[in-house]
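Sharing a chain and its predicted structure for anyone who wants a worked example. Both blocks are below, sequence first, tokens second.
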Amino acid sequence: MELEEMRRKLGMVGLLVFPLPDDIPGLVGRIVAAVEATGQMALPRAEGYAFMPSELVGTYGLPHLRLAFTADRVCLWVRDPGKLGIGPELPGLSAQELYEGIIKAAEAAASVIRDYCAEKGIEALLSLP
């Protein structure tokens, strides 16, 4: 797959759910666990978490997943999808591998959200390539 297509597909990733307020901490915990199970590190951020295979991904400004939550919503997206393949390749991590890891992690998060929505009878907005 060409870099431009991978960038476009990363830009399509967007998950948004409005859980019951008391469910937010548990849902976030389930999402974090599912994403970490794909090999991504969960790094705390002011709005929630950044997920990446190495802290160097963030240092170099490469694409990675972000999870944010507030009192009424949980959302996940790819930060800087257009920077895939721009800048240094990290040792052992090509642009293709970074792309595949992000997509795998986003799919794991979407699966958790789908399960939650099925349990609670609510809807979510899920966009994956």
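Comments welcome. The two ends are 13 Å apart (CA to CA).
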